[in-house]
Amino acid sequence: MNDKPRVLLVGAGAVGQVFGTYLRAAGCELSFLVKEKYAEEARRGYTLYALEKRQRAPEPLFLSGFDILVSAPEAARRRFDQVWLCVSSTALRAGDWVEQLARHTGEATWVMLQPALDDRDFLLRFIPPERLVSGMIPFLSFHAPLRPEDTFPPSGTAFWFPPLARGLFSGPPERLGAVLRTLRAGGYPASATGDATRAAAIPTAVLTVTVAGLEAAGWRFERFLQPDSLERVHRAAREAVRIVARHTGARASFVPPLLRPALFKALLPLASRVVPIDLETYLRVHFTKVGDQGRAILRTYIALGRSAGLPVRYLQEFQS
Ligand SMILES: NC(=O)c1ccc[n+]([C@@H]2O[C@H](COP(=O)([O-])OP(=O)(O)OC[C@H]3O[C@@H](n4cnc5c(N)ncnc54)[C@H](OP(=O)(O)O)[C@@H]3O)[C@@H](O)[C@H]2O)c1
């Protein structure tokens, strides 16, 4: 790889723009692969805000001067060291663009960030394991304003890292090392772990079920925190954690006893105070946007649970 890694980011949404900002800070030559409908917006460049405190707008960060591709075969006209997949799990499977892009990106390292348990296996159909690095996303990001009437954050893409958050990555040592060096050079908090998919599997399971419960409660914390709602959520979360632990080998015996209604009741108000935006609104907007991905993840848990003979009764209640 040369001194200035050449990076192609697929998807210039909330996550792609944040990684683009850090990779640019690391000195990377950036290209984005975007859908045709977003090309003009991409050509104007992006404005981002790294949030710290409520109602205190930070200095804007500008991201521009990158190459824009609107189809996978166009990648053949450039050489890339890294390809970052900044789209949802369901977008990975929409059409044959992954297969096409794999054909046109030579020996590039691919970095996947998707949360579904079967995403890595899907990508391994096109990318050899020696070139695939897996990561998880520790920050929140969104297109501001979340509601038309909001004046904070200013219009652009806002992002926030929880205190002490680190992005975990795993993969073949040489490729992983190059990805971590690049990210750290740009100031991104990145660490290696044995298996990023496994490390994220149980938090993802609890989050997915919590979000399904919140959606069933009309995206209102007040309704979500009612005893019957919490009862369904904590039981479904226990089912999901057992299934995921069985499937990934993640150590989880200590988790189900913790998953009690009281935990959700305590954590939600705490999280609402720590996050520097209206958490209820963010969760509604973000998880409506990636709703097809959440439903697909739930379906996978139920299918895996059934085939392993594990209970799925409460998970099924959240299937719409
Ligand atoms: N944002 C967060 O806070 C956050 C946090 C943790 C994890 N994640 C995960 O990160 C992933 C991306 O989330 P996001 O918030 O960045 O979503 P997003 O804002 O919707 O960005 C994804 C972008 O990629 C585009 N896209 C989809 N397929 C594409 C393709 N084949 N080629 C080029 N562009 C394509 C989408 O277009 P359309 O608009 O047409 O769909 C959209 O513009 C999801 O799996 C999400 O769960 C996000």
CATH architecture of the largest domain: 3-Layer(aba) Sandwich
Alpha-beta content class? alpha/beta
Mean pLDDT value: 95
Shape: globular
Classify the oligomer.
single chain
- Which stretches are low in confidence, meaning pLDDT under 50 for 5 or more residues running? none
Number of domains: 2
Terminal Cα span: 47 Å
Question: What string, H for helix and E for strand, traces the elements in order?
Answer: EHEHEEEEHHEHEEEEHEHHHHHHHH
Strand order of the largest sheet: 5-2-1-6-7-8-11-12
Q: Examine the coordinates and then state which fold CATH places here, giving the name of the CATH topology of the largest domain.
A: Rossmann fold
What ligand molecules are bound, each kind once? NADP nicotinamide-adenine-dinucleotide phosphate
Largest sheet: 8 strands, mixed
